[in-house]
From TrEMBL:
Residues 270-283 form the SRP54-type proteins GTP-binding domain. This is Signal recognition particle receptor FtsY. It is an enzyme of class 3 (hydrolase). The gene is ftsY. InterPro entries: AAA+_ATPase (IPR003593), P-loop_NTPase (IPR027417), Signal_recog_particl_SRP54_hlx (IPR013822), SR_rcpt_FtsY (IPR004390), SRP/SRP_N (IPR036225), SRP54_GTPase_dom (IPR000897), SRP54_N_sf (IPR042101). CDD domains: FtsY. One of its GO terms (cellular component) is cytoplasm.
Amino acid sequence: EKLKNGLTKTRENITGKMNEVLGLAMTIDEDLFEELEEVLITSDVGYETSMELIERLRKKIRLQKVTEVDKVRDVLKEVISEFMEDEEKNFEVKKPTILLIIGVNGVGKTTSIGKLAFKYKNEGKKVILAAADTFRAAAIDQLEVWAKRAEVDIVRHQEGSDPAAVVYDALEAFKARNADVLLCDTAGRLHNKKNLMNELEKIRRVIDREFGDANIYSLLVLDGTSGQNAVIQAKEFQKVAQLDGIILTKLDGTAKGGVVLSIKESLKIPVVYIGVGEAIEDLQDFDAKAFADALI
Ligand code: GDP
């Protein structure tokens, strides 16, 4: 329900355009496929991804011998659902898991960490936060606010201190308290790629040395309202860090939710969580089928 509500703007955008196209079409022909492709492209699905989806739609319609225009919507829904599902699930949060959360300012990184802490805690896990984005004091304070809300511990140093040192201390606390999940807030200053790469690598080295047998994942937080720009940003991050998954935020406030499809195709990494509101419980596991259902 929350997902359906969250995706209202995206759905209205896509289905509005699609209804127009389907309403006018008399038969299923090449013109119709081209117009549907246009609908997807203008809904932030991305050029390559839209082509791929329409190609799959063509095939399915041929195989299932669909002739009625009315049925096209359901077939497209199937196509989207399958498209999102045929992706390996390599993400599992079991003890001990260390998550490095990366992302530029303003995308919803702090909020997402707070939501994740709350979610894991409610699953019975012991969670610790590491404030390893030490560039701005306000960011550290903001993370502390979320730690209080989620009622989890936080390890923080002063503004400007070495992020790897924060992670080191957090790992000590993690071991001492026998915790399940460590969520590390890390930097995302893309304008200095060399620094960013060094910083993230140094953090990885500390983790490998101190806790090499933990499950370590790097998750990139992207702002769903930025549509195709989110994909471009992710590609920049892929140049400096090995990414395991995406947290896509603010899907509730945007008509650009089609970008989820594009991320999968262009980046080859899964969307694992989506943000659908500002409150602490407004984070969901990404579910391909539910998403396809809510989208169209
Ligand atoms: P950061 O700078 O990346 O850490 O970003 P913040 O976590 O401070 O979030 C920036 C703004 O985005 C805040 O006003 C958040 O409330 C808002 N925000 C974050 N996630 C979501 C979401 O899923 N939906 C909506 N509507 N707003 C969000």
